[in-house]
Amino acid sequence: MLTRLRQQFLLKIFGPGAGSFLAASAVGWLIDNAKKAFGENPETLDVSRLKPGESYLVTTRPPMSKAERKLQLSRDKLDQAIARQTRPNASTRKVATQLSKTQRKLSKAKPGSSRAQKYQARSDALGDKFDALTAPNIRVRSMQSARAELDLKLAEARVRSLASAKKPPRATTTKRFR
After folding, report:
1. Alpha-carbon distances, residue 154 vs 74, 149, 162 (angstroms)
2. Which of 30, 119, 154, 160 suits a disulfide with 71, CB 3.0-4.6 Å?
3. 29 lies in a domain?
4. Residues 98-117: pLDDT tens digits?
C-alpha cells in the first residue's frame, strides 16, 4: 500500500518517463538501506518442512532482567581486568624475542654440535623464564575463579528467565456480577 502511494506521489512530482523511474528507484534504494541500517529486517531463524500432524514451537528469550544485566556488566569488567593483567609487559616481550632468536639460531646449527647444545640449553632456560613470566599470578587466578562463578550465576539467571518464558499462560478467570 505504502509502496503504491510512494510511486503515485513520485509520478506526480517527476511526471511520467525515465526521470520518474530513476527517482522511484533511488527513493526505494534509500528506504531499503535505511531499514537495513536500523535493523528493521525480519530474521529467518529456520526453514523447515512440516508434515501433517507435526508441530513447531518457537520460544523467544525474554529481555535481560536487571539482575542479568548487572551480572553481565560485572563479567565484562572482570574480563577487561583479566586482559589488563595478562597483557605482556616489556620484560615478557624481551624474553619472547630472545627465545625466538635463540630458536632460529638453533634450527640453523648443525645437530649434535657444541653450538647446537649451547643454543638448546639457552632455549630451555629462556623457555622456562617465559613460562614463569606468562603464568597467571594469584590475582589473575582469583579473577578467573570469580569469572567462572559469575558465568555460573549468569547461566542460572538465563535458565530461570527462559523457564519463566516457557510457562503456559494463566487461565483467565471470569467474574459474573449479579
Report:
1. 10, 9, 12
2. 154
3. yes
4. 999 999 999 999 998 999 99
Q: Report the alpha-carbon distance of residue 144 to residue 152 in Å, rounded.
A: 12
Q: Same domain, yes or no, for 12 and 98? A: no
pTM, whole model, 2 decimals?
0.54
Range of the domain at 147: 66-166
Residue 127 and residue 96: Cα distance in Å, rounded?
8
Q: Determine, yes or no, domain membership for 146.
A: yes
Q: How confident is the model at residue 55 (pLDDT cuts 50, 70, 90)?
A: confident
Which grid cell sits at 144? 578467573
Handedness of CA 116, 119, 123, 125 (dihedral sign): positive
CA angle 31, 11, 40 (to 5 degrees): 15
The reply to whether 18 and 72 lie within a common domain is: no
Q: Tell me, yes or no, whether 39 lies in a domain.
A: no
Classify residue 163 by its DSSP letter. Answer: H
Q: Which residue shows C-alpha cell 527462559?
A: 162
Note the pLDDT of residue 59. 66
